[in-house]
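Researcher: Checking consistency across runs. Here is Transcriptional regulator, AbiEi antitoxin, Type IV TA system again:
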Amino acid sequence: MTRTPEPLPSSLGPVFTAAEAFAAGVSARRLRAPDLGRVQRGLYRRGPRFTAEDVARALRWSDASVMLCGPTAAQVLSMPLPSTLDVANTQQIHLTSAHARRSSRMLVWHRLTIDRDDVFDAQGCRLTGRVRTAMDLVEHLTPDDLVSVLDHLIRHPRPRFEGRSAPYATPEGLRIAIDSSRRTGRAPLRAALGRARVGSDSPAETSLRLSLVRAGIPDPQLNVRVWEGGVDLGEPDLSWPEWKVCVEHEGPSHLTPEQLAKDIRRAKRRAAHGWLEIRTVAEHLRAGGRLAVHEVRDALRSRGWEG
């Protein structure tokens, strides 16, 4: 008959170190019980699933300077990242510490100098703040993906849905942070900031805008409300008021019957006031946005643009 392992002390979290377990009175034999798994040498988990935050909290038991950084901090902070950097895909957790650490297959350690103002605390887990994290991502992202991250930081939130009214950063604040940084990689950060714009609500909108501008299409307005004759025509994702052309990118949130009906009614109001609306989907973003460029260029030319 299989013996049920004795309960672990409640002080141990989802992930814990062997040293913490021993300090709590757990025996080495108990750590070998089948209900526990080993994350790596000296690091254990209670169940099959755990988060990067769980790992960082466990490591802080013996080293209070441990914090998440780079792509892992960005993911915890819900910053836009390509799927190739998702922890679930890379199986890597990026951390930094004031002490020298050797990286393993899962834990990637970085030697960083972190100012106190660059630290963010989240329920016992420390990580680099958003601006510092964005700057550390320069070695992991393409130029366009880096612009997407900066767009995310400087966009004005929608308080009704996000519970905040101020952006995470301002273009001027980012410029100061980049210029005052002693790190390498400032040139690509400055270049990305020069291409970032306030108003982009998603990575898809950023990608769409960059593809269009790269093809010589004028820089559009971003999510600016349009009024015609006292009628509210909404806030197009991208718009060129001079030619009454706009683009709406249809992401997953637009696929519900209610949202589709709302989008159709809005499109009819715009058409009634002389606006030409282009609707794009994921396919339009492929191959450098070739399909989007073709459709927007044709629409603008039909309205008199001579680009």
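Researcher: Does this match what you'd expect to see?
Model: One thing to look at in this run: The chain is about 40% helix and 15% strand.
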